[in-house]
Design brief:
By secondary structure, the protein is α+β, with helices and mostly antiparallel strands. It contains four helices and twelve strands; from the N terminus they run αβββαβββββββααββ.
């Protein structure tokens, strides 16, 4: 998992570094009555929200580019592991152990800063706009079934989870001492397409496989209530696939540096 994190950080850097090099050459001087002040059009930032909310390993970074006096474009990309299953919702006779856990997040948005309500120049102040987000996770669990303290069966569940969302967001960004930014994405409803695929590797009958996959689905719902709107009342088909659409939500706290 650590190797995946390092690879993802390097991949994220390969996306953002060229933008930073190009942006460093593009600062605009605006004349005021007394002197010239530098307008900083670029912000690089870190999103710690998944770490704080889900207590999982992430490395998500972003870049915001001011396009004009009212609008900006933002890109966020990085590594994110799927949160751990909560032990309290796992049957004491069944043990799930992560052997692989990796994923990534990609999000883009276009922001309209409301100058009529904002006291300071963009990117400080209240903003609204559309966004797209994508999450993808690859998870592998070794599962052991116990009876009378002994392992009676064991198998592996390989699963892939994907979230594709399009929505509308509203937030407020504070610019502190010209160089630093605190971005609060407060409200972000969306329409989300959820895809889940799982297969069992082990010596189980077709009925046993279906039962274990459905139990795994129930554990996911109980461990992560935010999945309930997508998975509640659904069943995995014979190929181990599940597709569903619903309403999602996006929120975040991001810390940035401007230049």
């Amino acid at each position: 998992m650590k190797k995946n994190l390092i690879k993802s950080i390097l991949l994220t850097g390969s996306f953002i570094l060229p933008l930073l090099v190009a942006a460093q050459k593009d600062t605009t001087l605006v004349k005021s009555e007394e002197n010239y002040e530098r307008v900083r059009k670029n912000t690089i930032r870190w999103n710690p929200t998944p770490n704080l909310v889900f207590n999982t390993t992430t490395a998500i970074f972003g870049y915001e580019r001011v396009l004009n006096e009212r609008q900006s474009f933002s890109l966020n990309i990085g590594y994110m592991e799927f949160p751990k299953l909560l032990p309290g919702f796992i049957d004491s006779l069944v043990n799930y152990n992560y052997t692989r856990n990796s994923g990534f997040n990609l999000a883009v948005d276009y922001r309209f800063y409301l100058q009529e309500r904002n006291k300071f120049p963009i990117p400080d102040g209240f903003y609204i706009g559309p966004y797209m987000s994508f999450y993808n996770f690859n998870v592998e669990n070794d599962v052991s079934i116990f009876k009378d303290g002994l392992v009676t069966n064991s198998f592996t569940i390989e699963s892939r989870l994907g979230f594709y969302g399009i929505g509308f967001q509203a937030g407020y960004q504070f610019v502190i001492k010209e160089r630093f930014a605190l971005d609060l994405l407060l409200f972000g409803p969306s329409i989300v397409n959820y895809r889940f695929r799982a297969k069992i590797i082990g010596d189980l009958s077709a009925d046993e496989e279906n039962e274990q996959l459905q139990q795994y689905l129930d554990i996911l719902i109980n461990s992560f209530p935010w999945l309930e709107p997508f998975l509640e009342g659904t069943e995995i088909d014979t190929s181990g696939r599940l597709k569903h659409s619903g309403v999602g939500f996006r929120y975040a706290i991001m810390i940035g540096y401007r230049f």
